[in-house]
Automatic annotation (TrEMBL):
This is uroporphyrinogen-III C-methyltransferase. Belongs to the precorrin methyltransferase family. The gene is cobA. The keyword 4Fe-4S does not apply. One of its GO terms (molecular function) is uroporphyrin-III C-methyltransferase activity. GO terms for biological process: cobalamin biosynthetic process; methylation; siroheme biosynthetic process. Pfam families: TP_methylase. PROSITE patterns: SUMT_1 (PS00839), SUMT_2 (PS00840). SUPFAM superfamilies: Tetrapyrrole methylase. Transmembrane segments: none annotated.
Length: 275
């Protein structure tokens, strides 16, 4: 959906003339209990919230009724609001005097384009701050029982986006396969076969375990586990929805042993959160 920052709907939200403020807020991976206290405070006190498609419905339900919501989400193979339009919208709202919560899934500075928006606000002389959030890799790994590092198994983590900005974007596959790191691929659900084949072609054992986590940390949290060789076939047998994240490495084998969230769901155990 295209957003016109000069449209009547946007202009009429508030008529205050003093300059506003933009909060670039990480909403975490989906579970509202994983919001930071600061993020929740901003959600409750903003005058307008500009949010992405990755922000969960449960988190949006925390927004007060009087707060204007503007969706600018991007979705695979769908018409989306361009980043330039989002930048212009944030500037327009701030110049109208709004307290803007720019709400992003995960962390705004990890594949969230938060830094791009911060640079625009900086150039325009608009006051802003950045509120970190739990990135999808950490949240999805924890809820799937997959530690991203583990002594004797993985001494590091490398996060990669499978979605490049243009044709010049390249992944250094040789470097990745020899790092002895857990590999995390963001935005890679529709490129699983390409990712696994590239890893195998550049020397990674085809029996290396891989997990795909779908709608991580939400009530619809689901993950499947296979190997680089078998994951494509397994994807044909099950339904995996976006948003999702891919985890590659021997740490995936620990998921069965650290199955705390699966046990919680099976037994309908509810832990009281702060919301």
């Amino acid at each position: 959906m295209s957003i016109n920052p000069n449209s009547h709907n946007v202009k009429s939200i508030f008529s205050r003339k003093e300059r506003g403020f933009v909060h670039l807020v990480g909403a975490g991976p989906g579970d509202p209990d994983l919001l930071t206290i600061r993020a929740l405070q901003i959600i409750k006190n903003a005058t307008v919230i500009v949010y992405d498609n990755l922000v969960s419905r449960e988190i949006l339900q925390l927004v007060p009724n009087e707060v204007q919501l503007i969706k600018v989400g991007k979705k695979y193979n769908c018409v989306s609001t361009s980043q330039c339009e989002i930048n212009e919208l944030l500037v327009t709202l701030a110049n109208q005097g709004h307290i803007v919560c720019r709400l992003k899934g995960g962390d705004p500075f990890i594949f969230g384009r938060g830094s791009e928006e911060a640079l625009v606000l900086e150039r325009q002389g608009i006051s802003y701050d950045v509120v970190p959030g739990i990135t999808a890799a950490i949240g999805c790994g924890a809820y799937s029982g997959i530690p991203l590092t583990h002594r004797g198994i993985s001494r590091g983590v490398t996060m990669i986006t499978a979605h490049g900005g243009d044709d010049s974007y390249q992944i250094e596959w040789d470097a990745l396969t020899h790092l002895d790191h857990t590999l995390i691929f963001y935005m890679g659900l529709h490129k699983v076969e390409w990712i696994t084949q590239c890893l195998i072609n550049h020397g990674m054992d085809f029996n290396t375990p891989i997990a795909i986590v779908s709608q991580g940390t939400t009530n619809q949290h689901h993950h499947i586990i296979a190997t680089l060789k078998t994951i494509s076939e397994k994807l044909y047998q099950v339904s995996i929805k976006s948003p999702s994240i891919i985890i590659v490495g021997e740490v995936v084998n620990l998921a069965e042993l650290i199955n705390w969230y699966g046990i919680k769901k099976e037994n309908n155990i509810h832990y009281e959160g702060v919301m």
